[in-house]
Amino acid sequence: QGQTRTKKLVQKHYYANGNLKSISVTRTTLPKYIDPLNFYKKTKINVTEYDSVLTRKTREYTRITKLGRDGKPCYEILYEEVNYDSAGNRVNYTKSHCDRRKAIFKEYKAGKLVFTRINKRRKRQ
């Protein structure tokens, strides 16, 4: 019963001048044998956006969502985002975990880490 089936979908979007705008890869995982008590659907989306002139990365993000009765308290499990400047260096990084109640924010200057902030939310008793 632990077997899964995965579908992969790749979409490419282009600018009017013909350069690549973004690539999005979507992976959807479902259980192979559907059990109504443990049914879930997990979706992982990776999106990479590019500049219209130089075709360098400008933004990249990953989002993992899980739907179903698997004991998860929230729909979006993970969100991770990285922004780049025109030279290809990181500008900021964001990562948030819903289950762990934790978020990380990082800022960069000229590709070097300058500032880090970690937010933790506590559970109410």
What does this structure look like?
The chain is mainly beta. It is 0% helix and 64% strand. The protein has an 8-stranded antiparallel beta sheet with strand order 1-2-3-4-5-6-7-8, with no helix packed on it. A hairpin with an 8-residue loop joins strand 2 and strand 3. It is flat.
Please identify the structural class as seen in this structure: mainly beta
**General shape:** flat
The pLDDT mean sits at 85
Q: What is the CA-based Rg, rounded?
A: 18 Å
What is the chains' assembly state? Answer: single chain
Q: What is the number of helical segments per DSSP (H or I, 4+ residues)?
A: 0
Notable features of this structure?
125 residues; 64% strand; 8-stranded antiparallel sheet; mainly beta
Outline the secondary-structure elements.
Elements: E1 4-14, E2 20-31, E3 40-50, E4 57-68, E5 76-84, E6 90-97, E7 102-109, E8 112-120
Antiparallel strand pairs: 1-2, 2-3, 3-4, 4-5, 5-6, 6-7, 7-8
